[in-house]
């Protein structure tokens, strides 16, 4: 699949991607005096939907064993003016730090109270990091090799339990603005430590059984029932090619349309890229 920038509904628009965030930064960590640096900690978070499980919009109780995602070209920026991911403009970075290597993380790792997954700790200039960008190519190695997203777990409804493995090869990329949540993130004081977070909203894919049926999180979601219908010998084990071949044309288009809305910064929005053939 190729990637073409476009503006999408739901949680963001689309144009710049990670690694192509606009103008060159005016300063960077290696040019700042040591006394003006701190440590920027970048984490990935699948939220309680991944760590604790949840009920899909169509009543399937989903529990994840593994949710592997590939993170590459992770770049945190101090932007001026503040980057608005929904405005369609370029990210203007005055300082920027990047994770040097791609990394596969398992968002389901740890117990219900686990911290979001550590991606990297970076020396960074003091200031407000109010933008985060990353790409999600297929993993070069490891348990999810060849796939950008690998979801494995069980889904239960009534007396039926279906083990599932869903392997996604489509490449994704996100350029996100300021973190939105109960606490501010990315404000780094000299000699101190600050967090930034790449957040993944898998309820966009499956919906949320605790929300009203007419809530946008459910009306725009695929749910699990179309995937359960693909079970063979009591198990769903599919990759992107099998999804394209086996889902209805409408459901497959919906699935592809949801993937670029998975990435957030807390509840903050991102510019997305839409998948094209």
Distance between the termini: 5 Å
The low-pLDDT segments are: 1-27
Overall outline:
elongated
Helix content: 10-25%
Order of helices and strands: EEEHEEEEEEEEEEEEHHHEHHEE
Q: Which class best fits the helix and strand makeup?
A: mainly beta
Proportion of residues in β-strands: 35-45%
- Record field, number of beta strands: 18
| Main pleated sheet | 12 strands, mixed
Number of domains: 1
Number of helices: 6
Mean pLDDT: 88
Radius of gyration: 19 Å
Describe this structure in words.
The chain has 277 residues and is mainly beta. The chain has one domain. Strands 1, 2, 4, 5, 6, 7, 10, 11, 12, 13, 16 and 18 form a twelve-stranded mixed β-sheet that branches. The longest helix has 10 residues. The N terminus is likely disordered.
Summarize the structure.
This protein has helices at 47-51, 203-206, 216-219, 225-228, 240-246, 249-258, and strands at residues 2-5, 27-28, 37-45, 54-55, 61-79, 93-98, 103-106, 117-125, 127-128, 131-136, 149-157, 160-168, 172-176, 187-188, 193-200, 236-239, 263-264, 270-276. The strands form 3 sheets. Strands 1, 2, 4, 5, 6, 7, 10, 11, 12, 13, 16 and 18 form a 12-stranded mixed beta sheet that branches. The protein has a 4-stranded mixed beta sheet with strand order 8-3-15-17, with no helix packed on it.
